[in-house]
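Case study.
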Amino acid sequence: MANDFEPVIIGFTCNWCSYRAADVAGTTRLKYAPNVRLIRLMCSGRIDPTFVLKALADGADGVLITGCHPGDCHYLEQNYKALRRHRLLQRTLAQLGVEPERVHLTWASAAEGAIFAATIDRFVERVRALGPLRWPARPKPLPVAVAPELAEEALP
Amino acid sequence: MKPKFAMYWAASCGGCEIAVLNIDAKILDLDANFDVAFWPAAMDAKYKDLDAMADGSILVTLFNGSIRTAENEHLAKTLRRKSKILVAFGSCANEGCIPGLANLSSRESMLETAYGGPSTENPAQLRPQPTSQVPEGALTLPPVQPVVRTLDQVVEVDYHMPGCPPESHQIAAVVDLLVQVVQGRAELPPKGSVIGAGESTVCDECPRERNVKHLTQLRRIQELGPLDTTLCLLEQGLMCTGPATRSGCDARCPRVGAPCIGCYGVAPEALDQGARMMTAIASAIDAKEPEAIDGILDGIPDPAGTFYKFSLAHSLLRGGRAAHRETETP
Amino acid sequence: MTDQPQQHQQEQGQEERIGVYVCHCGTNIAGVIDVGSVRDFAGEGLKGRGVVLSRDYTFMCSTTGQELIQKDIAEHGLTRVVVAACSPHLHEGTFRTACDRAGLNPYLCELASIREHVAWVHTDHDAATTKAKAIVSGAIERARHSVPLEAIHVPVDAATLVVGGGIAGLQAALEIADAGHEVYLVEREPSVGGHMAQFDKTFPTLDCAACILTPKMAAAGSHPHLHLHTWSEVEKVEGFVGNFTVTVRRKPRYVLEDVCTGCGICIEKCPVVVVDDAYEAGIGYRKAIYMPFPQAVPKLPVLDPDTCTYYLKGKGSCRACEKFCPTEPNSIDFNQTEQRINLRVGNIVLATGFDLFDARRIPQYGYGRLPNVFTNLELERMCNASGPTGGAITLRDGRTAPKSVGIIHCVGSRDRNYNNYCSAICCMQSLKLAHLVRERTGAEVHNFYIDLRTAFKDYDEFYQRVLDEGVHFVRGKVAEVSEVPRGPDEAEGKLYVQVEDTLIGMQRRIPVDMVVLSAGIEPRHDAKQVGQTFGIACSANGWFIEKHAKLDPISTMTEGVFLAGCAQGPKDIPASVSQGAAAAARVLMRIRQGELALEPVRASIDAERCSGCRICNALCPFNAISYDAAGGVSAINSALCQGCGTCVAACPAGAIAGSGFSNEQVLAQIEGLLLTNLEPAEALT
Amino acid sequence: MKMLFYPGCSMQRTARPYLDSLMAIRETIGLELEEVADWNCCGATEYMSVHRVPALALVGRNLAIASRQAEGTDTLTAGCSACYLNLAKTDQQMREDPRLAAKVNDALHAGGLSYAAGSLKVRHLLDVVCNDVGYEAVQAKVVRPLHGLRLAPYYGCQVVRPDPDSRWDDREHPTAMDRLLRALGADVVDYPLKTQCCGGHMTVIGPDVAYGLIRRLVHGAATAGADAIVTLCPMCQLNLDAYQIEMNKHYGTSYAIPVLYFTQLMGLAFGKAPAELGIGKEFVPAAPALSRISDRPPAAEAAKKKRRPRAADGLPMPRMG
Amino acid sequence: MSAVPSPSAADRAPECSAFLREVMDATPGDSRLNMCIQCGTCGGSCPAGPEMDHTPRRLFAMIRSGLRDAVLRSNTPWYCVSCYFCTVRCPQQIHITDVMYTLKGMAIGAQLYRDNSPPDFSQTFVDYVEHYGRSFELGLATRFSLRHHPLSLASMAPMGLGMLRRGRMELVPHRIEGMAQLTRILDRAKALEATP
Ligand SMILES: Cc1cc2nc3c(=O)[nH]c(=O)nc-3n(C[C@H](O)[C@H](O)[C@H](O)COP(=O)(O)OP(=O)(O)OC[C@H]3O[C@@H](n4cnc5c(N)ncnc54)[C@H](O)[C@@H]3O)c2cc1C
Ligand SMILES: Cc1cc2nc3c(=O)[nH]c(=O)nc-3n(C[C@H](O)[C@H](O)[C@H](O)COP(=O)(O)OP(=O)(O)OC[C@H]3O[C@@H](n4cnc5c(N)ncnc54)[C@H](O)[C@@H]3O)c2cc1C
Ligand code: SF4
Ligand code: SF4
Ligand code: SF4
Ligand code: SF4
Ligand code: SF4
Ligand code: SF4
Ligand code: SF4
Ligand code: SF4
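After joint prediction, the assembly is written out as follows.
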């Protein structure tokens, strides 16, 4: 049963290393699980917890954040900021009952296509094992009869 | 005939009502220009009186409190129908506020804490029942819903007025505005606007001096020595949520040395107050190694409660899984 | 910039008209993805999201494919273009240019990578098609929030700063100066020349190092457009590409540069002799006032206050140099102080070279403890005719010629305990030293190597030559060098090189008189700080990071800062010279252009929304963010900003906007990828 | 300074003088040692060869008992190199491999015990003496400096290597004991073999190899001009002392370099009686060497006159440090 | 930086021989054995190197080639004295000494050693520990020597006597009080060893 579950995962990649690692995985025709949909950011430092929460709230079962290896950031040290945000976010998510493992941070250099592919496979399996997140959709205001727009004549 | 004014108190502490009364003489302007049609805290009124009113017959309703019970929801819908302008008044109605923190736990565990916890004297282990028989007949309680919702998650809302409670000077200004609109001297802001608040964050109004932020430790106030009276609290190691909280309060807390706890809610046009505060804190931490980062983060023992103290119910995830799971159909 | 949820939000003004193009890439994409289904999904399913036309085509990047887009923009009034094809790193430029030609702002064109990220990496056709649809949907939503952007234009100052006067820096400086532009060459040592000036011969041709280097040094010293600042360092760099302001700190030489004739009498008369750790690599001496080497440029002495008697005695006695200096006014100036000068330059070339690995870090090789263990650089000095032994190779006693020499390769290199990379030059340099030892002493030479790396022109030929000269090669990384015999059958007074001869699978202990450690090369010890000064980063190994390892090893991530020589990574002289010349070509191209167009992906702060919390202030590695205390708000210098978006993500007030990667774009793309833009959410098959 | 103490089998028996001398000096240097209750053998280098998880559980029992005993200290010290290494490595492997740690704890539960990896700091006695007690404190207690005694400090392998917690400045060329012996007033020779292998258990299973290694160490010390070799490990002491005789027989040589524990020399410098320190129990008698201890400090080297280097001086040596 | 788990060794070398993987899996932590560059630092450093039939380096090449029998029959691991020179000098930071322990265990498991004296020594030692909770030199030396070098026993006797005389050896072993507890622990550990 649980094996039928195909997680949907949003992946954030940086323009310089991890997105290129994904490109390399492609050019070298490596095969990996099709569950991750990537978003290209300029840098892992662009990662905003809002993006992660948005993805989880909108139906993703997991979020993968990738950046250049520490010391390799094309913007010097911005990946450390991603690391710090990730660690704090994980603490908060745990309190909210979202398994912190659903939000995974990893480093991949532009050359590490194979590692990138393997990381995706492993992460997909991990999320699959956790099961669907199934966060309830945002409640839409109920269709209650609303008073007509404030009309001129309503005013004395 | 004067236009009708209403105010209602759903799941909230009542502070909002007091805040309105706190506007001193301004309350007389309200009385002079409006006919108070329904205000259970200030005057006697029965639901049937409300039901009797025509749809749209109330010009403006200040609705405070979040939606916790079926009764809250019923009143929200009723007042929506009866009112031309529905204002989500105060943090509870807008973002869930403290009652919204209940969304971190399931209804059962919440009731358990309230009626069975160590701080409750309840030797008979009584629990509130939907109906109970008393000599006079059957009493019913409105059912507690699985999650706390904000007013705009239940009905459409025209204006939002944040604050826990909204500051008196802001209420006074809004009352002024309403009076002027009624007198035809001013226009209403666009529908959906936030009223009675600023357009930046609390730091904007905070007089404390600040520097480039390199956070090396976060402490509770009692763990710190005497505070510097002029320096930014965050820089002194206190978890101040001023940077991510909408301005409008005039930085009341930081002014007197208490960190901002976020009651004015999410910053203008931001989606999630907690996310904004988390990203700010994590960005400003001065550490690179995971162990060092964790060491500093350990200074925030309750991140969800810290970053979402007021805005949990209206955040992107709207609370914890425990509460939401109940709403799922198995 | 706001976090505003975008879903189903009513767009203000005119509704977007989006054109979607799905590429087959021959069978590359179409072989795995049902291209027609993706096209229909966009065209039909996302009509409500502004898609007005959706096409598929065999090769979108072909001229015909591009013309198709241009024609549609003209005929259908497209306001956004989404091309589902290969990675944006390949063809983003192509399609953006096509849009530009048709009058659509290039930044309104969005690429969806369904080749590298879908067709090539998945085998399940249905899953691949579903994923491709999601990616296209994400791109469409993102495109809806794209805004037209204009490149940022900055003028380029024609003057150039070259930092480091080794062979790489000299080459770059001379080529730019020869083109008629002003060059400031800042060198931290008293003379230019770098490491090459220390050698006697250079591989593989065994040219005399001085013969080929001295002319370049002399040219640099006398060039009308080349301004040398030796004994100087760059302290601060402000501004941005085209327009840097550089502060140079000139250390006091205690010698008047424009009076001194370089006669050297002061040096002769100075009574203080100390070990020269710099130029002589620790095996020769210099005076307290000295010229690093006879061919030094500028030909000026420098007085070292840390060893000069006059300073050591708190400004008293000696002054022999002053007494004998023949110039009028006297060239010795004991009161000289540090000076700072400001330079305005448009581009910067960093050619700061390398440090030699410190062989003391490997105690089992005995360097520093066993007298007859030498480093490669010590031996280079010994071979040099102007070196401490006048070119003779001797044991530490300075007299005895060794009868047997062991040369150990890979010292500190290819070793995770020290440096994990190959230093690239030491195999050849070890062969060179083996040859020199054989030539000058006739000693028996053993080279201990793991692999012999003799790539490049004429290098392996050199190896063959050395083999022919009778040098022994033992394949094995040396375990230790010991002076203590293991058994009674081993003689005293020898150095035993203990190694596994891996080709015979046996441990051997080879007795020699002298051991030469071919220490590898390392990033400069202060590379990190220097990098910070210039706003560039070091890789995990410590070398300056180039923009692209293969296709742009010259540029850095900081616009206007280029690399040359070993500062970028281990390399030999031919490669250092080539890179120096390449950096010069880049700089000349910039100067020729006169103006630069920068990518408009930049951050900016909305002063109204900024609360002045100063969270963002420490975040920018390029110092683009400043704080205006009077206004209580922060601001971003868009020319310095490189568009990483870190501050955008960090600002708690949401006051920082990131053009090209805005919150709206990313949030909308998330919705698109998760297909919450479909109404009602259709199950994709 | 209080800490837990694991003596190990050797210290109880073959290295009795080590234990005796430690007991004799501990008060002087303010060491309060609490023996781990009913400890068992650490398995030396043998147990690990046969079983892996049981080997860790074997050591785990000691760690578990020690951590239960730990009060007012989290330091566990051992004098034997192999014991130290086994304790330290078990703790490290449990820290790094949670699955393995779970297994070890599972086994320990069978005996009603458990050990939380990382809760104890495992240190070798020499480390404690040099870095916690400190050279100054030791020097302050010296009443009979070991002037004139030339010593070869011998560390052996397993204290400085593999050095799981990076305690030593160098795994090939440590200097902690050199400094300690200098603090006692002794003359420390440059002993290039200070971390070479003593042969370990090879004396039993491959005596020829062992003799070769022992000869080299003894010969190296003799060439360096040492009166005695100083060790910090029972196994090293045994191999170099007891087997020196066998080695001499094997090679037909007559080396006679006594092998002492650093604690014995500390005791001597602190003015303790040799017998109290177990001196006299060694196979190669230490008395002749110890008789070299003189009352007078070595004459301070006449301050070298600074002069200009001459050709006859040869090339300058690289400067260390 | 430990924030992000690095890919496991197996991922790095998916095609490495089954035997190599077996050895790596049996070694605690990441032994990195697949990263050997055949430089010979280990073989050059090993004090027992001259006695080994294969240098450690060559043994690792053999593991890579899947020569299971030849590897487990080799005397190399048994001559390892755990000096850790190879481990700290290996330029690839391979946990060589730990691998030697693994190979010894595997050789015992497969009953594949040629000379049974070293494994026997280990086993004898283990027996004493499992019996008394402490090692017992006298017993160990005599029992082992009786079995393997009966002739040398006579020559070793003076040393044994010397030890006894100097109070550095005892005639009877010491048994720890918690022997029953230790036995339970070891039994459980042995059962667990078999599990993955
Ligand atoms: C022992 C040895 C032998 C070699 N033999 C050969 C050979 O035979 N053939 C061959 O092709 N290659 C040889 N090489 C390699 C050769 O040395 C290098 O390829 C070459 O020197 C690199 O030149 P460079 O200009 O990049 O660096 P360098 O020569 O190191 O020059 C860098 C210069 O920058 C200056 N500098 C550094 N930091 C600063 C700063 N912050 N501010 C200002 N100035 C600074 C330094 O003082 C120096 O002058 C050998 C290397 C070694 C170690
Ligand atoms: C199998 C193989 C794999 C390689 N893999 C890598 C790798 O992974 N990474 C790497 O960095 N390097 C690799 N290389 C090396 C790399 O190919 C070369 O460094 C690089 O291609 C050299 O580029 P080039 O422009 O000098 O020469 P070329 O690529 O040979 O280009 C020369 C061009 O000139 C044209 N031409 C020749 N004569 C004339 C003429 N008389 N008139 C007009 N045109 C002419 C030729 O048709 C050709 O188009 C590899 C090489 C080989 C053989
Ligand atoms: S004290 Fe709080 S509100 Fe005031 S500046 Fe600091 S962070 Fe902002
Ligand atoms: S300082 Fe005077 S003596 Fe020295 S080189 Fe210059 S001119 Fe000659
Ligand atoms: S003052 Fe004397 S010691 Fe100093 S540089 Fe001049 S001559 Fe040399
Ligand atoms: S060039 Fe040769 S000697 Fe130098 S590190 Fe590379 S392989 Fe070793
Ligand atoms: S983080 Fe945002 S609000 Fe704070 S100073 Fe920077 S731009 Fe202003
Ligand atoms: S986007 Fe990045 S580079 Fe630009 S100002 Fe912000 S932190 Fe600096
Ligand atoms: S030292 Fe390490 S890399 Fe070198 S052969 Fe031995 S195991 Fe392999
Ligand atoms: S640990 Fe073993 S294999 Fe390694 S060098 Fe020492 S004896 Fe040899």
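Observations recorded in class. Residues C 269-270, 272, 288-289, 303, 308-310, 318-321 surround iron/sulfur cluster (ligand 5) (CB under 6 Å). Strands of chain A lie at 9-14, 36-41, 62-67, 103-107. We will return to this complex in the next lecture.
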